[in-house]
Every structure is written in structure tokens, then in C-alpha cells.
Specification:
single chain; 16% strand; 5 strands; alpha+beta; 4 helices
Length: 137
């Protein structure tokens, strides 16, 4: 089977999986034109499972699947994925980008400093004159 035929077969299998009324949660990600990532995250509110268990189970399954496909250790894939996740604001993401930002613990109103770091309003910052702050008042 050619690579294109295998891709088409896998895409058709994904469509079949999605066309099932017994689904209680899903994370779907697609890449368009080799650069734009579209995502959909959904969970049936009638499900008895904790949403974080669904999310972590799906993530763990994806990590193991990617590791198997790459012939790599899943711990290394997880570490690489975590490093890339920290750079997601720099990648062209459409779809659930707002939901991703809202779910990120350190994205609570942080201002982008333009250098990959963020600063919150209450965070300590360095003194512009490079002198230690005067804490004796």
C-alpha cells in the first residue's frame, strides 16, 4: 500500500470512528497545508468520567501512538511534546486556540513580552536601572 493510500485509509478510519454515537470524549487535531493546526475538543456532559481523566487518557494514548510510529521511547516523546507545547503561542493554531490558552494554568492574563516570556501584573520585575530593589521602607 502506498503512503497516500495508507493516509486515505487512516483518514477514512478516523471518519468512521467519529461517526459513532457512543463517543463520550474526543480530541481531534488536523494539520492543513503543512502549517495550520485545527483542533476540536469535546466531552459529553452526561459522561460519568472526570474530564481530566478523559483528557489525560487521550493525551497518553496519543503519546504512545506517536512514539510507536516514530520508533521512540514514549517518555522522550512526552518530553519533546511538552517542550513544543511551551512554544504553541508561536505556531499558527486555529480552532481551539482560545480554549487551549484558557486551560493553561500560567495563562491567567499574562502579557506577552515578545521574547517568549510572559509577565503578570503582580510579578516582580527587574529594576530598570539594574539596581537591587530597596525593600527597606
Amino acid at each position: 500500500m502506498s503512503d497516500r493510500a495508507a493516509f486515505t485509509a487512516d483518514r477514512d478510519r478516523a471518519r468512521t470512528l467519529l461517526d459513532d454515537d457512543s463517543i463520550t470524549a474526543l480530541h481531534l487535531g488536523v494539520i492543513r497545508n503543512d502549517e495550520t493546526v485545527d483542533t476540536v475538543v469535546a466531552r459529553d456532559p452526561a459522561s460519568d468520567y472526570d474530564p481530566s481523566i478523559h483528557t489525560l487518557s487521550l493525551l497518553a494514548t496519543h503519546i504512545r501512538s506517536v512514539a510507536a510510529e516514530a520508533g521512540a521511547d514514549y517518555e522522550a516523546v512526552a518530553a519533546d511534546a511538552a517542550a513544543i507545547a511551551g512554544q504553541l503561542d508561536e505556531l499558527p493554531i486555529e480552532g481551539a486556540a482560545d480554549e487551549i490558552d484558557e486551560a493553561t494554568p500560567d495563562s491567567d492574563g499574562a502579557a506577552d513580552a515578545g521574547d517568549g516570556s510572559t509577565a503578570n501584573a503582580g510579578d516582580e520585575t527587574t529594576n530598570p536601572d539594574d539596581e537591587p530593589p530597596n525593600d527597606t521602607a
